[in-house]
Structures are given as C-alpha cells and as structure tokens.
Amino acid sequence: MLFLPAFLAAGCSQDSSAPSAAAPPQRPTCPAGWKAGWQHLANRLKVPVYCPSWMPSPLDGKIGGAWDNGVSVDPDRSYLVSFLWHEPPSQDVHVNLRGYPGRTRIPRCNADTAVAGRVLKRTVPCFSDPHPVRRIAGLAVTPYTVNQGVDQWHVLYAWRRRGTLYTISEHVIKPLTYRQVVRNLDREVAGLVLIAPRA
User: Fold this and answer.
1) Residues 102-128: tens digit of each pLDDT
2) What's the farthest any 2 CA atoms get from each other in the chain?
3) What Å distances lie between residue 27 and 32, 46, 62, 186, CA to CA?
C-alpha cells in the first residue's frame, strides 16, 4: 500500500492561484576576484579565454591565487593555466585549462621510447580515446580519456570556437573517482565565461 505524506494527500489543488513563472537561469559570471587575471591573459594573447565560474573544492580559479599551479604561454600563443591541491602521499585535485589560438587540430606530444639502448623518436596525439560529442551550455564538447603530458591521467573535454581549440581537464585520482571527475567537468564547462581581449 502506498502512503503519501499528509501535505501531498491533502493536495495543493485547493490553491487556486496561478503558478508563478519559473525564474530564468542565471548566466554564469567570472568571479570578481578572479576576473583580472583572466582578462590580463586574454589581453596578452589577443584572443578570448574561458574563465571558470566554478571549481572543485578546494580549488578556485584565481590566477596567482593559493591554488595556482602556473601559467605558461608558448611562442604560438598556446597557453596552459593549471590549478592544483596536493595532499601527500597521493591525493590531488588538479585542473588544467588550455587554448590553442588559430589551431583546431589536436596537438601532438612526444612519445620517445628506448629500445635496445636506442631512443626511437615519435609523436602521438596529445588527446586520444574520444567519446561521443556532448552538448554542454551551447558547446560541442568531446571527452577524451587517454591524454599525454600535463593532462596524463586526466579526463579532458575539448571544443572549438572560431578557429581555436580549447580544453579543460581534471585528474582522476584520490579523493575523486572517475564519475566525480566527469560530474565536476560537466559543471565546470557549464560555468565557463568567455573573456574577450581589450585593446
């Protein structure tokens, strides 16, 4: 037998007032304390960058803040912004945001191997094992689960905007499970805010 709570059994049907219109979802914004760093990066590169409006605890998205793990910019203007919390011996919360201005192809990473005392030089795609494209907050995002370099052991989401490849990745390691990392990335991508460069 199904028992309903008293307030459900009584029903709300006696309320004859019209239902209120649902409030439209608020658009994410780059937090005030984080925006200056992302604006500076966009100005330096002369290309839009994505500021995260949400980061997994305990991280924040403040460039130069407590969890900043470095900003690097290559001569071709490709960039890496990294945030890291580390608890010895082996717990991390690690998020990387990257952009490749003017490039949409997946970059290649060194994968040299030593065989019989000789080094065989080769490169492989930096992101591989793609999963089906997903739509998140208007972006067509491709998840990758086999990645190289600083994104190794990360789940990585990649998308393209106006001739530029962008990515965000998060490390799958304690205290987080794979499913938690995917949920985090979904929320991170949904909260990204595009910061346009200023003259």
Assistant:
1) 999 999 999 888 888 888 888 999 999
2) 83
3) 15, 24, 20, 15
